[in-house]
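Re: the multi-chain job from yesterday

Posting the exact lines I submitted so nobody has to dig through the queue logs.
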Amino acid sequence: MSNMQCIRLASRLLIAVSLTASGLFGSTAVNADEQVHAFYVGKLWPGNAEPVTDAVMLVVDGKIRAVGARSTIEVPESAVRHELQDAVVVPGFVIAETSIGIASDDERTLTPEVRAIDGFDLFGDYSRYVAAGVTTVQISPGQARLMPGQGAVVKLAGDDHSRRILRPQESLRLVLSSESASAPRIYEPPVGAVSVDNPLDPTQPQIAQSLSARVAGLRAVFAAARTGESDNSGAFDFDAFRQNVSLGRIRIKARTSAEIRASLMLFAELQKSVDTKLQLILTDSAELDAFLSDAERLKSIGFVLNADVRPGQVLNPALPDEDEQPKKQAWDNAASLFEAGAGESVAVRPASDSDLNDVLFLAGLFTRGGTSQLNVLKMLTANPARILGVDATVGTLTADHDADFVVLSGDPFASGTLVESTWINGERVYHREAAKRATLVQADTIYTTNGSTVSDGGVLVAGSKIQAVGSSVSIPEDVSIRRFPGAVIVPGFVDLGTGLGFGGSVSRVSLGTTLGDRLASDDRTIAFARQGGVTTAVFAGSDSPSPLLAFKLGDTPRLLKEPVAIRFSMPSNLTSGVSGLQRTLASAKAYADAWTKYDAEMVTYQNQLKDYEVALAKYEAEKKAAAEKKAEEEKKAAEEQKAEEAKKAAGNSSGPKDESKPVGEVKTPAPTPAPTEKPVEKPPEKPPETPAEKPAEKPADKPADTKTDGSTLATTGQSEAGKPEAGKPEAEVDPNAPVKPTEPKKPQVVAASEPYRALMAGSIPAVVEARNVNAITAAVKLFREEFRLKMILVGADDAYRVADLLAKHEVSVSVGPTLVSRVENSVVNMPQVMANHQVAFAFQSNATTGVQQLPMAVQYAVFRGLGPADALNGLTESAATLLSLQSSIGSLEPGKDADLVVMSGPPFEPSSEVLAVMIDGEWVYERGAKP
Amino acid sequence: MKIQVPLISRPWKIAVVLLLAGSTTAIAQDRLALRGATIIPIVGERIVGGTILISDGRIEAVGKDIEIPVEAKVIDATGRFIMPGMINVHSAAGMSQANEQNANVPFLSVVDSIDPIADFFEESRRNGVTTAAVVPGNSTMIGGRAAIVKTAGSYVNDMLVKRDAGIKISLAPTTGTSRMSHFARLRRELLKAQKPEEETSIEKPAEEVKPEGEPAEAPKPEGGETPETPGATPAPSAQAETEKATREALVSLLKGEMPAIIYCETSMDVSQALALVDEFKLKPILVLGRDCYKAAKLVADRKLPVVLDSTMVYWRTDPITRKEEKIVLPKIFSDAGASYVFQVADSGTSLGTHYYWYQATTAVRYGMSADAALKALTFDSAKLLGIDDSVGSIETGKDADLVILSGEPLSVSTWVETTIVGGKVVYQKSEDAELRLLFNPEEDTN
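And the result, structure tokens for all chains:
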């Protein structure tokens, strides 16, 4: 916006310079040295006329220079082009009455000196109204007093305050409707100059409550003002009143016909007392019927109709009396006024300021009364501007008006139309955020951990993903660039074992438990833990077997995978314990195998089914053809027989009586075709179906009765598979008919065993806790040799003793929390030993807040001899691979999650510190910022 | 640690003041020379090892090679720093009550309620503040006239630098009124004063005095039971007297003889204040509340120096997004290009904001230069109050209001050792009984 201001300032200066030059080019030409903004739009509604398609609007210094179809407007070369494509542009909405920013009424009844503009905060935030397309509003000084004061007309956004106040004193307001009848408080005048000598004025009652008394009171005030009365210390400020009236606009809130009549009468009296022509504005008028005949008078009045509907709310209206005329809705009144020829002086306002966000919807309702879209749009733009006397500057998109407009996604009153952006004085004051802006994070060095290092480059983050990494990244238009000079970017770290995520420990977790949707949001522990650079954590329970889940350490933790691994711990008594573990794994395998078999059978079945359908179609076609042929032959045979019989009969020369006889006789030869027909129709359809359906149903019911156990399930599955064949002979009618294949039986789902399927298939690893050499050896034997599972060893204090064994069997190790230990006078640097023996390893902290210190612990291992590259790999790539999450985390590559750690220097250097951490494209930590 | 300071009785304090006054009178008649210190004159370069010669309460000479007359009393300030006394630019302390209940009292003057032995003045001297603008508080509409006084003296008249130093106008609505009503009433008062005098005085007896006079009589107890007593007649004239005084005060404000000290509570008040200044041609001194930071650009564009709120750093929660942001007033106003001076809190629990040293160092922390901060404490404040001809810097001919510091100003370990007002030593740390009591509570029991 400041840019625009500069441009405007510059252009203003240039206008001054080029004043003489402009004469040469003529008035319509655009000066070469002015900054012109050209807006190209699909459809432009000027607000007072039919829309223009494929329009262009030229804006100079916040004012419209020209509007028209693209072919008719000459756009200077130097113009800044704004291509709004298919968007629809309408003038900024003008609301002819609101009470935005006004806190409370004065306690006095008649306060003509009170100005609404004094209560309006130009520094206030009105973005929610602007977001709905409202750019200019009238503000009222109060709601509930007879003469609350003077209104004002202001724009709702813009830095240049002098351009925002369109009318500091717009109209004098009178409230004749019921609000002013029951005034909330009695007026207590302020203490006079010196309290001892000038006692309190007595408390003054309000002007009486009835309409007649209120009107009489106002008439008395008018009369006193007319006779030139001046009372400067009294309650009523005559000077302010006279000054107000001389400004020419009187706004009266009058709902019922009696109030409207009183308003017209009072206005006429007021008009008599001044020389200037006064303008009357009636607001919230509902009972207009009696006044519709006088078209000339209607035209001279401004009507601000109250929409009287709360969008989306259901209210109980008062039940109308039986003999009463049905109540007219605001849109009916609008239609009547248009019909009466006073359409140019009708505006609409929402029933409450909180509905200003919905003016488009509310105005749309006015099309119900039969008012055209164009006329309804006028009620939001050109008409209110005219009523408020600001039509020379706002309300229409025509030359020399302020460039206040709204860009819509569709036609103004269509459902689903959104405000895309709002512009005031040529400046964009609201813009709908369609998608997250891209961020480019730049640093001196980027360790991608996929084998390459980028120097002096950047990571482009779009949404939550990395879009590009490199030293010459193409930058999108609306990118925000974040530069960290001298810094290093590495992928977010992974901690393979933490207590984070649930605000404490979670006990008794079985394999069937799902914890993923219970991760705690806005956890301060997580906010603290991630400051060290760990962006992905694995939650590990203490039960065996139990599922592990991996999640991101954002403000709202995002679950990556559950389970990401299954945790087992080697029993302390290996002799008896291992066999128990073996049984568990065996039944797990049986369960998984049952499913694997089912899946395989399913594939075969699907193929067979396809073949069967083809075969069946072919068979039926053949059958049909055969049947037709046969039927024809039989017909022929029958005819021939008939002919022969007829010949015989003719030979016997018997009469018609004879013919009745053969009917009974024919019965004997008749059965011959009947049996042949039956088998033709039935066998292909029914018999194959019955065997297919029945066995499929039966086994499904059976295992439900049997206790859920993987092994028994597997056996029943096998026996059932043979059954359909046994059932087949029953329907064996036609051996040539194709046999429908049997659908394989589905094993029963056991929630607690489900994770085993992924484990046995090798898509998730087994995390095995084994401390000493014996336990580790037993674990390797069991998990790797016998069951061939992916295996990650944890808590393995003795792993360094059997590193070769681990390497041989491709067992990976998650080291930590203690990385470097002292055993029998020698220092053991566990990750270093693993690296030296080609054992894949990652790190874990087993901590909560201590997760923050994991990189520091790794730094110590590096100090003790672990290679920094291996260390970084163990914290990122390798850890992601161990968890089979390498497709989304672990390295900086396009398409992966945007988890970045920005460090002040190369990782694990003593002087390096974490400067910032990004998780899923959001900055979650920045050094020095308030957490 | 027991702090016994609050227990000290008032008579004792008077004794201290008298004692100090008595001991310094002799020095004042002679000439005084301050020798060997690093002089920070605010206008101009620092003088290392310079001498300040004072005679008759004013600075006679400043410089490096100044001959010290034989008769002059010499204070050796070698290794010390001397700067001009600081100026408290806006404070409602030092008088009995910050605000009158009535919100429209331009005829009142703080001079009538200044208390020379108030703790405020003693604290000021202890911290090196030698001049203070005593201004009516912020909860008012037209709150009365301010005065500028020196912080040392036994009688208010002796302390006065400027009797009518401005009229306080507050734009924050007083209890029970809305912003619109408050502003409407204020405008009405000013418009009334703007009118030529004849118009109001002619109309008054004709229409107003009669109806107003009647209720005025009723509650007067001396008038007795009967309202017709002739004793009732003086009442209107007394009121006319106050109205005349009110008018006179406001007229001098409108003529620009007195500045308008305008308190703005929020940003929108600043634009209102500027509109008011334009409409009535006022000479403004803007005193900003802490929420006025959005209007920094406005005052910068007008080149108006402002008085910042005593709370200069705070956290603000955005009402819509609920996001917290840290507001640092000196930084915002510096970035906008506005010039400003500091004020200290009169009350409240945050201790730091009670001290000008703290305010200045806060500004320095957020980017102001140390020299600029010291200038704001002294010269800029004097200029804003219109008293820069006599105070605010160490220059020949100006009042000898000086502070001798133990070290670099704006350093944590620096103490005010001696405060001199009008050439008289009014505070010496070595003789500060209360300070001694604070640090060595046991000593008192001996």
